[in-house]
């Protein structure tokens, strides 16, 4: 099946972001994509100072638009971190998934908050305004089972291992790595998660905006189970397409059967919730 990653240029005007995102989703569907993914924070600028201002409940304005366009195009739509979600007085970094009938299939709240300090380069603390999610998020389709993470979640290998154990063959991480962590780790982490678990990994970033308070690295990418980069964007707004070949995945798992050769008598990773 064909997967499309929408690397969107995000402005400060929510309505413009929603309109442009839906337009690019329709374009991707017209070119045969059955799965379309939007980037982290696609409807607002990324930054702790923006989260409260742009927050919505779910369902709300942004998710209603995503539901409508998913149904119109009859696709699976992974809504990036569609919105800073407000729920019971707390804010979450939340990704929603809608099916071809427009129904909400999954809602992933970012589990690991991005609190980092690289002296002289970048300091950021999502926990100043956001609360963490407390669950894994998977959804079934006639094609395959898909696991979700958001950006910083990708650094935690255990999360991807759990998804693999639960039968996922594709992991999708909407993300917005920056100009420090992006060139160092963005592709490296994707290839690591893909090879370790013998599955496809897709990441979808906002387009780079040098004038933004937080500059995203871009380079939305798809990696196959062999660890090869099979699709990759530059820094500009674009849509990246790739075909997910589950037969190739099965062949790789048969050739190097690491999933069946794990020494579960010596070690293990378990899901507690």
Structure description:
With 273 residues, the chain is an alpha/beta fold. It has a single domain, classed as Nitrilase/N-carbamoyl-D-aminoacid amidohydrolase (4-Layer Sandwich). 28% of the residues lie in helices and 27% in strands. The protein is built from 7 helices and 15 strands. Strands 1, 2, 3, 4, 5, 6 and 15 form a 7-stranded mixed beta sheet that branches. A 6-stranded mixed beta sheet has the order 9-10-11-12-13-14, with helices on one face. Strand 11, helix 5 and strand 12 (200-204) form a beta-alpha-beta unit. Helix 1 packs parallel to helix 3. The longest helix is centred in the N-terminal third of the chain and has 17 residues, at 14-30. The radius of gyration is 17 Å and the shape is globular. The chain starts with a strand and ends in a 12-residue tail after the last helix. The mean pLDDT is 95.
In short:
The protein is of the alpha/beta class and 273 residues long. 28% of the residues lie in helices and 27% in strands. It contains 7 helices and 15 strands.
What is the secondary structure topology, with strand pairs?
Blueprint: E1 2-7, H1 14-30, E2 35-37, H2 48-54, H3 61-73, E3 76-78, E4 83-87, E5 90-98, E6 104-109, E7 115-118, E8 122-125, E9 137-140, E10 145-148, H4 157-165, E11 168-174, H5 181-197, E12 200-204, E13 221-223, E14 229-232, E15 238-243, H6 246-255, H7 258-261
Parallel strand pairs: 1-2, 2-3, 10-11, 11-12
Antiparallel strand pairs: 1-15, 3-5, 4-5, 5-6, 7-8, 9-10, 12-13, 13-14
